[in-house]
Specification:
Layout: H1 11-24, E1 27-34, E2 38-45, E3 47-48, E4 53-58, H2 62-69, E5 72-76, E6 82-94, H3 100-110, E7 121-135, E8 144-147, E9 150-151
Antiparallel strand pairs: 1-2, 1-5, 3-4, 4-7, 5-6, 6-7, 7-8, 8-9
């Protein structure tokens, strides 16, 4: 692997950088799977509430159908050098059942409120169990920054 001159960050710095990105970025790649139809990956807007990732998708989308059958998901921020991968279980909330606070925070961030749209929408909440973060080859060895839902220091 090529050395890019990036200095290895301690775990505490990787956690801070990851939390900053979760709080400011807009898009996340969502990977789901279905036992009969295989893997599915799609980009969605997301909101980080300090503990969980919130997304919204059509109630009949492949993503919604997959998480109803298999809730385990992997999320990836869209940068192939400054990698952040999250794993957890997706919990679905129909638009009429999602907490008002979560729905309003989502609407405030994106200027779009799925609760007022025609058709069904499903909010997905993922509390990460594992988070991996690394920049370049030097950080591969210490890439786990959250284990069993606890940030490492």
């Amino acid at each position: 692997m090529m050395n890019t001159g990036i200095v290895e960050r301690p775990t505490a710095q990787r956690v801070r950088d990851t939390l900053e990105r979760l709080g400011t970025e807009r898009d996340v790649w969502v990977s789901t799977a279905h036992p009969e139809h295989g893997p599915h990956q799609v980009p969605l807007w997301f909101l980080w509430d300090g503990r969980a990732v919130w997304m919204c998708t059509g109630g009949t989308s492949m993503t919604a159908r997959n998480v109803r059958t298999e809730p385990r998901v992997r999320l990836a921020l869209p940068d192939t050098f400054d990698v952040v991968l999250l794993q957890g279980d997706a919990e679905g909330f129909p638009a009429h059942e999602v907490s008002a606070d979560a729905a309003q925070a989502f609407a405030d961030k994106f200027g779009w409120d799925p609760r007022g749209e025609e058709g069904s929408f499903l909010y997905l909440r993922v509390v990460p169990r594992t988070v991996r973060a690394w920049r370049g080859g030097r950080e591969l060895a210490g890439r786990v920054v959250m284990r069993d839902g606890t940030w490492l220091t």
